[in-house]
Write a structure and sequence with these properties.
The protein is mainly α and 86 residues long. Helices cover 48% and strands 9% of the residues.
Length: 86
């Protein structure tokens, strides 16, 4: 179910950016019963991984995100204390 919810948020982002997205592949969207837990360290790791990609692909977005003081996760995620996943 988490994969479907993730794809739903990808769809919303695609719609916001006016991209084409075949929404029939993800409807109906299940209701969120609980959030996906992710550790603080994993969130930081994922953010840094994104920065590495953006440094090569989108320098403006990279520079913008370098100014981020606090990483705010998508509402689908619940941040918990802990280390990076193995």
């Amino acid at each position: 179910m988490h994969q479907v919810l993730f794809v739903f948020f990808v769809y919303l982002e695609a719609k916001k950016r006016s991209f084409k997205f075949n929404q029939t592949k993800i409807w109906p969207i299940p209701r969120v019963k609980r959030k996906i837990k992710i550790t603080e360290r994993q969130l930081k790791f994922e953010f840094n991984h994104l920065l590495k990609k953006l440094k090569k692909r989108d320098k403006e977005k990279y520079k913008e995100l370098l100014r981020v003081n606090k990483i705010l996760p998508h509402p689908l995620f619940q941040i918990i204390k802990g280390e990076k996943e193995k």
